[in-house]
Design a protein that fits this description.
This protein is an alpha+beta fold and 582 residues long. The chain has 26 helices and 16 strands. It has 5 domains: 4-102, Zinc finger, CHC2-typedomain (DNA Primase, Chain A, Alpha-Beta Complex); 109-234, DNA primase DNAg catalytic core, N-terminal domain; 238-358, 3-Layer(aba) Sandwich (Dna Topoisomerase Vi A Subunit, Chain: A, domain 2), CATH 3.40.1360.10; 372-427; 449-580, DNAb Helicase, Chain A (Orthogonal Bundle), CATH 1.10.860.
Length: 582
């Protein structure tokens, strides 16, 4: 654990307003600063940044935190990386240490170490006599020494137990080796999964090797690629290939390019296109789409030029639109992937493609039109309905008009009729939205007085040490689990550090996802800054009433089937509880 007092000292050396304004524009209104929230599709400035409290809060999506949390979520980096960035901003370099000697090693450290060792071994193998053929294969594919070094490409030798034997020599247990995904067990014992293959390491978001893709480089009739199976440290749907390298370039250009395969990324890198990542062949997940959104404002999808690539592009667009991101699309002719396209047509041709991407709507028109005969009434009807549905999601009036004109030209249908269909689609969508809002309001109305009291008391516990003392003396137990846990942490923090500073408490619970969610809910409550002592006692009384009520119910159930003497004792206890709660 990083020392809490040292973190507090570091946080106090930077101004959250200065830090956040280096990422997004902020405008001062009264005591606070406001900006467009980067954590949801925000059209109006809904994020408030308080210089006084050194925290930010979005009143639309509920995002909140201190300077560490903002950098973590905006740049999608670990807490430790966020701390290092704040240290750099503060100008604290060699003086600020993260007490590595006292850190608790990751529970997965053995796996990380094994993969790092394997990566170095494979790199070394490539430059030995046994790796000569593999190296020649890479050179034939126009992957030079600089690229090989940059992407840490290696070679797994023909000997089937090389890595296994070396890891066993480092005292790795059999169970750990098998779970790592580097070793397999067969009738002959343990052996390497990767044998006689060119090895491409796969990294997590922080740049740690967590998997491999091993490729054949000869004409043997086996699987061309063997990819690491999912493990404790390798979840393909949560990662993007080359993320750790691409993120800085993507933020500089405010643009990120998404491809399918790692060879596409490597090829793009050889022509100077470095703001590029890949899905590694999987359909884009919500997690990957979130990573893309945080990397840059402009997302360009450049998948393979075949039918599967078009289908994947359509799916990826939907995931991004759900997050409020409208991507652009590059389609490559002759069904080529970016790797082959660059090799066949060259750098300039590919850069022209990137500099002139098509809009999402133009891609959809092409996609829905494919394999349809617009002279056939059935195909035409299906096509027009699909495009109208897509147009209902678009807010750009100019783009709508342009697209309606295109459909008119293609179908012969009157623009007035198309607009009428679009309005019906929008009305249907709005009706659905209204129903959803009503349902949410109904859910909100179900909040009990006990929950309201819990949240209010927690709100003031974060601001008023007197509220913490009332909690300790009169409550001690919150009805709702997440608020109960949060109250205990607030109390523990206060007793350990003898103060309550919201920005520091946010650092204190960093990484505890459920607690951070509960805290965001509490921080964004529309309550006044201060409460009278009697108000706080009223909240405590309501919470206590819940505890008493539940205890009475329990005792009443216990009375059923109890002896007369026991019933008398329980009834007396119930009366005491009722009298004590008045």
């Amino acid at each position: 654990m990083i020392d809490q007092e040292e973190l507090q000292h570091l946080r106090e050396q930077v101004d959250i307003v200065d830090v956040i304004s280096s990422y997004i524009p902020l405008t001062q209104k009264g005591r606070n600063f406001f900006g467009v929230c980067p954590f949801h599709d925000d059209n109006h400035p809904s994020m408030s940044v308080s210089r006084e409290k050194q925290i930010y809060t979005c009143f639309a999506c509920g995002a909140s935190g201190n300077v560490f949390k903002f950098i973590m979520d905006y740049e999608h980096v670990s807490f430790r990386e966020a701390v290092s960035k704040v240290a750099t901003i503060a100008g604290v370099e060699t003086h600020f240490q993260i007490h590595q000697a006292r850190q608790t090693p990751s529970r997965y450290q053995e796996y990380y170490d094994a993969y790092e060792f394997a990566c170095r071994l494979y790199q070394n193998n490539l430059h030995t006599k046994s790796g000569q053929a593999a190296l020649e294969y890479l050179k034939k594919r126009q992957i030079d020494d600089a690229c090989i070094k940059e992407f840490e490409i290696g070679y797994a030798t023909r000997e089937s137990q090389t890595l296994t034997t070396l890891l066993q020599g480092k005292n790795y247990k059999k169970d750990t080796l098998l779970k790592s995904g580097l070793v397999v067990e067969n009738a002959y014992g343990l052996s390497d999964i990767y044998v006689d293959r060119v090895m491409f390491p796969l990294w997590n978001l922080e740049g740690k090797v967590v998997g491999f893709s091993g490729r054949l480089y000869n004409d043997e009739k086996q699987f061309k690629y063997i990819n690491s199976k999912e493990s404790e440290i390798f979840k393909k749907g949560e990662l993007l290939y080359n993320y750790h390298r691409a993120k800085e370039e993507a933020r500089k250009k405010n643009q990120i390019i998404l491809m399918e395969g790692f060879m596409d990324v490597i090829r793009a890198h050889t022509i100077g296109v470095k703001n590029v990542v890949a899905t590694m062949g999987t359909a884009v997940t919500k997690e990957q789409a979130s990573h893309l959104k945080r990397l840059a404002k402009e997302v360009i999808i450049c998948f393979d030029g075949d039918a599967a690539g078009a289908k994947g592009t359509a799916s990826c667009i939907e995931e991004l639109l759900n997050l409020g991101v409208t991507p652009k699309v590059v389609r490559l002719e002759n069904q080529l992937d970016p790797d082959d396209y660059i090799k066949q047509y060259g750098k300039d041709a590919f850069l022209r493609k990137l500099n002139n991407p098509m809009s999402t709507m133009d891609f959809k028109l092409e996609y829905y039109k494919k394999d349809k005969d617009l002279s056939d009434s059935g195909d035409l009807t299906h096509y027009v309905k699909e495009v109208i549905t897509e147009l209902s999601k678009i807010h750009d009036e100019v783009l709508r008009e342009v697209t309606l004109k295109k459909i008119h030209d293609e179908s012969g249908l009157e623009i007035s009729f198309l607009k009428e269909q679009l309005e019906k689609q929008k009305e249907q969508k709005e009706t659905t939205s209204v129903l959803e809002i009503k349902e949410k309001k109904i859910e909100k109305k179900r909040e009990t007085k006990y929950e309201k009291a819990e949240k209010a008391l927690l709100y003031y516990m974060l601001r008023d040490e007197g509220a913490i003392r009332i909690y300790e003396e009169e409550v001690t137990f919150m009805p709702t689990k997440e608020y109960r846990n949060l109250a205990r942490e607030i109390d523990l923090f206060y007793n350990n550090y003898h103060h309550m500073e919201l920005a520091d408490f946010m650092t204190y619970i960093s990484g505890k996802e459920k607690m951070e969610e509960a805290l965001s809910t509490i921080v964004s409550l529309p309550l006044k800054e201060e409460a009278q002592k009697e108000e706080l006692r009223d909240y405590a009384r309501v919470i206590r009433e819940y505890t008493v009520k539940n205890e009475i119910k329990r005792l009443q159930k216990e009375m059923a089937g109890a002896s007369l003497e026991e019933k008398t004792r329980l009834a007396t206890r119930i009366v005491e509880l009722r009298l004590g709660d008045r």
